[in-house]
Amino acid sequence: MKFELLFKIVEYITFIGLGGIAIWGVFNLILVWRRVAMVRFRDEEELDAFIEAIDEPVTAKRYDDAIALCGEDRRAMPQLALYAIMNREQGAERVERQLAERFQLDVMSDIDYRLSWVATVIKSAPMIGLLGTVVGMMGAFSNLSSGTKVDTGQMAEDIMFALITTACGLSIAVPLLLAREGINVQIRKMEDLVTAGVSQILEVLRLR
């Protein structure tokens, strides 16, 4: 009876653990998706339109107008352009280095932090499912070794629990893995556009 009670407790803990990490993984994935959507340009056309918009006031040395234009847009590229315009006297090499640092600190650090939690959930979910599998099989073998008449119903429940936890762990990990890879594609596109945008901004400011 003591072993049966222990197995039941572990079963409940396993399901609670699977549910908890699934919620945490989806929560962090949603935050990353929203963050990327908020800070990136969707394509090169949007980037080119932004560069054209600030090119005219910067060329005319109406820096206040360019600053106001960048300040109204909270996406990563306009904010980097704002910083470059305000620090244009520091030289191309220093400004470019500072822009890379600001992009990493202001944008990528939070994204990387959240994605690390998603990766942890992807790795942990199958392991918790495997723990449930082991516990379920232990319960089944405990029933066989009891020395009394085997309770086939209980044995079937233990085996079913073992299979369900394995399936749950994989059902959590696989969709999160696919979604994370989809977000990584968007992140790489964003980084490419930012790199191209920084070069164009430095050219507009005549720092190159």
UniProtKB/TrEMBL annotation:
UniProt keyword Transport, yes or no: yes
GO terms, biological process: protein import
Membrane topology category: Multi-pass membrane protein
Compartments, record wording: Cell membrane; Membrane
Pfam families named among the record's database cross-references: MotA_ExbB
Chain segments annotated as transmembrane: 12-33, 115-139, 159-179
InterPro entries per UniProt: ExbB/TolQ_transport, MotA_ExbB_proton_chnl
Key words, A-Z: Cell membrane, Membrane, Protein transport, Transmembrane, Transmembrane helix, Transport
Major subcellular location class: membrane
This protein's record includes keyword Cytoplasm: no
GO cellular component terms listed in the entry, alphabetical order: plasma membrane
Stretches assigned to the MotA/TolQ/ExbB proton channel domain: 87-191
Family (UniProt): Belongs to the exbB/tolQ family.
Protein name per Swiss-Prot or TrEMBL: Colicin uptake protein TolQ
Protein's organism: Botrimarina mediterranea
Phylogenetic placement of the source organism: Bacteria, Pseudomonadati, Planctomycetota, Planctomycetia, Pirellulales
